[in-house]
Amino acid sequence: MRTQVGIVGAGPAGLLLSHLLHLEGIDSVVLEDRSRAYVESRVRAGVLEQGTVELLTDTGLGDRLHRESLVHRGLELRFDGEGHRIDLSALTGGRTITIYGQQEVVKDLIAARERDGGTVLFEVSDVAVDGLTSDRPTIAYTHDGRAHTLECDVVAGCDGFHGICRAAIPAGERTEYDRTYPFGWLGILARVGPSSDELVYTNHERGFSLLSVRSPEVCRMYLQCAPDEDIGAWSDERIWEELHTRTATRNGGFTLREGPIFEKGVAALRSFVCEPMQYGRLFLAGDAAHIVPATGAKGLNLAVADVRRLAEGLAQLFSGQGSDLLEHYSETCLRRVWRVQHFSWWMTSMLHRFGDDPYQHRLQIAELQYVTSSTAAATTLAENYVGLPL
Length: 390
Ligand code: APR
Ligand code: PHB
Fold this sequence. Notes:
Bound molecules: adenosine-5-diphosphoribose, P-hydroxybenzoic acid
Shape: globular
Number of helices: 12
Largest sheet: 8 strands, mixed
Mean pLDDT: 97
C-alpha cells in the first residue's frame, strides 16, 4: 500500500493530523494497535485551550464540542482552607478554557475521518518503521492476520509515550530529558453535578486534589497518591472522605457533593522530552515526544500544537513550496514544549505534597499567596493556562 503520510497512532495527535492533511488534499493512513472501542473510551484529561478549540472549530470539528462542552472563565486555587479565584479571562483579554473530555475529541475525529473517507486501521500489530533516512520510508504491520507494508513519503510518530516510533531514532541521535514525581493521581468519574462553578486546585498537607467536571451530571476528581498506589485499597467511601478532608474550607462554606463513582484509576506523573522531534522522514508529535504532568492540563493541547505545525510543514512540502517549515519543525515545537514543561512542573511543584518537609510546604504557601494576590503573578498563570498564542 502507498500513501503520502503514514501515521502511527490514533490518539488525538494522529487523528487530528490525518484530518488536517485531508483538508489540504494530502493522503494519509492511520495505524492503531488498539480497537476503536478502546480508543474511544480511554478516559484522559478534559481541558481545551482557546487555541485548540479555535483550531477544531475552524476545521469543522466544533459542532458537538460547542453543544456539549462547558466554558470556564476562571479557576480556583485553594490552600490553608481558603479558596482564591484566578480570573483567567480578565487577565488574558477575555480568553477562556473549555471542558470537553479527550475521548469526546477522539470520537469526533474518528467520525470525521470516517465521514471524509479516511483510512484508520484499528487493531493492527507488529508495527515497525524502516527506511527513515531514505526518500521512501515504510511501515510494516499485521492486520486481519496478514502482513502488510505501507510505503510513505513521510512517517508521523503519534504513537504516544509507549509507542515504537521514538525508539526508531538511533539512541545516539536523540537526547531524552526525564523527571518522575514521587506521587501519582487517583482519578474518579462520578455521576454527580459539580460542587463548584470552576475547577478547584487544592494544596493540602495531606496532598493535592483537583475538582474537575465533564458535564452538568458527571464530575472528574483527582487525589494525590503514591505513584504505585493500589486502587483496590480505595473504597468509594474512603475516596469521598479524603476528598471532603482536602477540599474543606475553614469557613465551612463549601459542600462537596457525592454521587456514584463509575470509573477510578491511578496514573503516575512524569515530565519527559525527546530531542529532536524529527529524524530523517520521521516526525514525532504529542506524547511520543513529550509528557507533562496533568497539573497544567497541557498534554492534549501540546499534541494539538505539534500537529498544527506538522500539518503546515507537510502542506508546504506537498504543494512544492519547499521544506523550511519541516526543517524547523523540531526546534519550533521544542520552544513551546519547554515553555509548557516549565509551566506544568511549576504548577505541580506549587500544589503537591513532597514528603514531610515543612519548609517546602511554607514555600508553597508563600508562592500561592503571591500568585493569588499579585496581578503580575496571576497573569503568568492565567496566560499559560488558557494557552499562549500558537
Ligand atoms: N502501533 C500502533 N499504535 C500504537 C502503537 C503501535 N506500536 N503504540 C501505541 N499506539 C497507539 C496507542 O494505542 C494510542 O491510541 O498510539 C496512540 C497514542 O495516543 P496518545 O497516547 O493519546 O497520544 P497523543 O495522540 O500524542 O495524545 C496526547 O494523550 O495521554 C494523553 O495527556 C496526553 O492528552 C495527551 C494526549
Ligand atoms: C480533567 O478534567 O481531567 C483535568 C482538568 C485539569 C487538569 C487535569 C485534568 O489539570
